[in-house]
Design brief:
185 residues; mainly beta; Lipocalin; ten-stranded mixed beta sheet
């Protein structure tokens, strides 16, 4: 029994340290800006009380429909939201598509729904910046424990990259020290 008391204190300390990042309130604007993963760039901005996350760049090979792909759209045309369950929305371009629905800031974390254009599914979602300065977007069904987290790094438009940026977003990713080396589409 003597060993249980120190063990329970260590367990309690572990729980407290593990939840500190959630207990410390972040500022709503921490998530805004340009973020990238290996295949895309997102532009996250606060619009009134809500948040929007627009896809503004893809890998060049994923930007347009390719020869041999089964699609209602002609080869070489920009990708559309063709997985959307609503037939009326399938003609929307993926470039510039806002993936967030009814995002609100509460207790240091953004909450709402996120649309996945690859599957056409909408999930409950949270978004925050972790202690390493990375954007973490978590999508889930039911409870957050049963979901998937995608991590984005801050995007510096002055660094070389191989992503195709939509022409309408060039002003957003313009490097003030020179020109970004990504492809414009």
């Amino acid at each position: 029994m003597r060993y249980l008391k120190p063990l329970s204190n260590v367990g309690l300390l572990s729980i407290l340290l593990g939840t500190m990042s959630y207990a410390s309130a972040a500022a709503p604007e921490d998530v805004t800006g340009l973020w990238r993963d290996d295949g895309s760039i997102l532009w996250v901005e606060q619009v009134g009380e809500t948040l929007e996350a627009k896809i503004i760049a893809f890998r060049p090979g994923e930007l347009r429909y390719l020869e041999g792909e089964k699609s209602a759209w002609p080869v070489g045309t920009p990708r559309r939201d063709d997985q959307n369950p609503d037939p009326q929305l399938r003609a929307r371009y993926l470039m510039g598509l806002n993936m967030l629905v009814d995002y609100r800031f509460d207790k240091g974390v953004w909450h709402g729904e996120i649309y996945d254009p690859r599957s056409g599914n909408t999930y409950s979602s949270t978004m925050k910046v972790n202690q390493r300065g990375e954007l973490q977007m978590r999508g889930y069904i039911g409870i957050a424990l049963l979901g998937r987290t995608v991590t984005y790094r801050p995007f510096d438009p002055c660094l070389s990259h191989s992503l195709a940026i939509g022409r309408e977003f060039v002003a957003v990713v313009t490097c003030t020290q020179g020109s970004a080396e990504g492809n414009l589409q």
